[in-house]
Write a structure and sequence with these properties.
alpha/beta, 5 helices, Rossmann fold, 4-stranded parallel sheet, single chain
Length: about 140
Amino acid sequence: MRPFSVALTGGIASGKSAVSDRFEQLGAAIIDTDLLAREVVAAGSAGLQEIVEAFGNEVLGADGKLDRGSLRKIVFASPGHRRRLEAITHPRIHALVESRLRAVSAAYAVIVVPLLVENFESYRWTDRILVVDVDRQTQL
């Protein structure tokens, strides 16, 4: 049986990690899409290979890992490049979320999605959405 799923989102330094840590202490399974995003572009992965094919070898570091700074410069220079990167990474991230969710034995799963607003359609299936909203003085 699928666990009750909550998409957790919020602004930068709003406390999403603190909230997800507390849910984990209470027994909820945590699926962090930021961590999954790193997994789909790990050295030797199909995701990284496709990124290199799309943007060139300059996005690779000497160690064979993704050079995030180089990729960032390319991607933020053009909305088309950003869409291309998202077309490579987002389906892989979503597949991992679904896979991890199927493996959850807890009654509740919290899916941490920092960019939920930009990717809402991909997470419409969740049972609830929890937004961490704090004023600027409270931000970490």
